[in-house]
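[retry 2/3] Protein translocase subunit SecY: previous attempt timed out, resubmitting with same input.
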Amino acid sequence: MNRFIETIKNIFSIEELRTRILNTLLFITVFRLGTHIVLPGADPSRLNVQTNGLLGLLDAFVGGAFSKASIFALGIMPYISASIAIQLLTLALPYFQKMQKEGESGRKKLNQITRVLTIAVTAVQAITYIRTTIPAEALLIDRTLFTISSVFVLTAGTIFCMWLGERITDKGIGNGISMIIMIGIVSRLPGAIIGEAQSRGTSSIFIFFLEMVALFFVIMGAVLLTQAVRRIPIQYAKQVVGNKVVGGQRQYLPLKLNAAGVMPIIFAQALMFIPGFVFQMGAEKSETMATLNSLFQDYTSWPYNLLFAFLIIVFTFFYTAISVNPTQISDDMKRSGGFIPGVKPGLATSEYIGTVLDHITLPGAVMLAVVAILPSFASQLGMTSAFASFFGGTSLLIMVGVVLDTLQQIESYLLMRRYEGLMQSGRVKGRTEGVTV
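[retry 2/3] Protein translocase subunit SecY: success.
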């Protein structure tokens, strides 16, 4: 406890770090206040927004703003969708690949294209959101006028959230976009814990204690999945530069066990939502449609979880294959004079890295699938759905990743000032270490 208090004192004794932490708290407070401001022209007491399936995931990412019809109802998610689209285009189209290789100027162009695409995506999603989720009885003004004004308000809200994220990155601590998503998720945790405790009652306090212990170990498992790497030794040849001999050092290429992050879960959830929506439209026409609808909507059933886990494993291999390029890594090593001991440079090195990547991706994909379906098992054990959602899935992985990144940045400030780190056992490793994806 004394060491923890001393670490807190060290953190706030560094003026720059203290300023960044206070700025981050200020920006987060502004975001949280915005999630409670309802769209102009809507009566919040008459809103009954259903958040099932993918909509429930979106509502969790924006801290409940989606179900409240807030001005931040779409949050930062249109920007995430636009960023993913640009990333995929960069891998597929030579024009975007060339732009990415142009350095800082190319990145600025890609960021500008992403912002413009974000506005377009937000406008389309805003119209869909207003038409499908806001009931007519909740409107205080004309429907057409409400739609037009709300499209502008929701678009402005998303742009403002994007601006807040950029300010957190520049003036605060951590990745601002990820921080905003994480805050939206964490904001639901206290209510979920209180709701679970109330559902258990005083007679089942021991069961609630066991649930909290199980949650702790699940979080530790997610930390291991996020930080686990396979280090490949790289030897750099000695070179004569002037009168000095440089190089000859041994470094390591860290390949992450889960290089795809949370993207396979997001893709799998989106794909599972589509047939569920289609079958729901025809559920009343036949018993077959009703059965298929229950299959794709009941996330606690074993067929749903089996298919969900299979899709996650497939998407993990797919996203890792398009994100980590062994040929490019091999070429970069060759140009910098590096080689893997016992492996010839060039094609042999590329094949070796690809083989290692395949070997570690399989267990990583299986572990990711297990983490994704854990909430369904928690629900089957009698936990409330809100509390069970924190036992795995996208929410847990995002929280763990963002917290690790933030702690890593704080520790870097402490080490620069020759203070002790946050952890006595070693340095905090964030997601930024390893292969860039």
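[retry 2/3] Protein translocase subunit SecY: Residues 237 and 248 are 5 Å apart (CA to CA).
[retry 2/3] clearing retry counter.
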